[in-house]
Automatic annotation (TrEMBL):
<dbReference type="GO" id="GO:0016020">
    <property type="term" value="C:membrane"/>
</dbReference>
<feature type="transmembrane region" description="Helical">
    <location>
        <begin position="12"/>
        <end position="32"/>
    </location>
</feature>
<keyword id="KW-0472">Membrane</keyword>
<dbReference type="Pfam" id="PF07681">
    <property type="entry name" value="DoxX"/>
</dbReference>
<protein>
    <submittedName>
        <fullName>DoxX protein</fullName>
    </submittedName>
</protein>
<feature type="transmembrane region" description="Helical">
    <location>
        <begin position="44"/>
        <end position="69"/>
    </location>
</feature>
<dbReference type="InterPro" id="IPR032808">
    <property type="entry name" value="DoxX"/>
</dbReference>
<feature type="transmembrane region" description="Helical">
    <location>
        <begin position="75"/>
        <end position="98"/>
    </location>
</feature>
<keyword id="KW-1133">Transmembrane helix</keyword>
<keyword id="KW-0812">Transmembrane</keyword>
<feature type="transmembrane region" description="Helical">
    <location>
        <begin position="110"/>
        <end position="134"/>
    </location>
</feature>
C-alpha cells in the first residue's frame, strides 16, 4: 500500500491521530453529558434512548481509539459508521425544524457528521491493509 512509504506513512499517522482522537474525544464528551444527551434523544423520538445513547458513546469511543491506534481498524470503522449512520438522520433532522437559526445549526451538524461518516468509510476501505505505526 502507498502509505507504507515515507512521508505518506507519517501523514497517514497524523490523519489517524486527528480523526481517531476527535472521535474518541467526542464520545467521551458526550458520555460526560449523558443525561442531557439522553433527554435530547428522547425529545427527538429515539426509542430506548436510555440504552441507545450509552451504546452510541461506546461505538464512538472504541471506534475512535481503534482508528487512532490502528487496532482492529476495520471493526473500529464499522462502529463509527454505525454511529454516524444511526445518529445523523435521527438526531440532526434539520428538515423537520421550522426555526431558521436552529435549522441552520442542525444542518451544519448533519453535514459535519456526514463528512465524518465519509472518513470512516475511507478507513473501512483501507482497513485491511497493513497500517504503518500500528501494532
Amino acid at each position: 500500500m502507498v502509505v507504507e512509504t515515507s512521508p505518506a506513512a507519517e501523514l497517514f499517522l497524523i490523519g489517524r491521530v486527528l480523526l481517531g482522537g476527535v472521535l474518541a474525544y467526542l464520545g467521551v464528551s458526550n458520555m460526560l453529558d449523558a443525561e442531557n444527551k439522553i433527554e435530547y434523544a428522547r425529545s427527538t423520538g429515539i426509542p430506548f434512548a436510555g440504552l441507545a445513547v450509552p451504546v452510541s458513546f461506546v461505538l464512538l469511543i472504541l471506534g475512535g481509539l481503534g482508528i487512532l491506534l490502528g487496532v482492529y481498524p476495520m471493526i473500529a470503522s464499522v462502529g463509527v459508521i454505525a454511529f454516524f449512520a444511526g445518529v445523523t438522520p435521527a438526531m440532526h433532522a434539520f428538515w423537520r425544524i421550522d426555526d431558521p437559526d436552529e435549522r441552520s445549526q442542525e444542518k451544519t451538524q448533519f453535514l459535519v457528521n456526514f463528512a465524518l461518516l465519509g472518513s470512516a468509510l475511507i478507513v473501512l476501505v483501507i482497513g485491511s491493509a497493513t497500517w504503518p505505526y500500528a501494532p
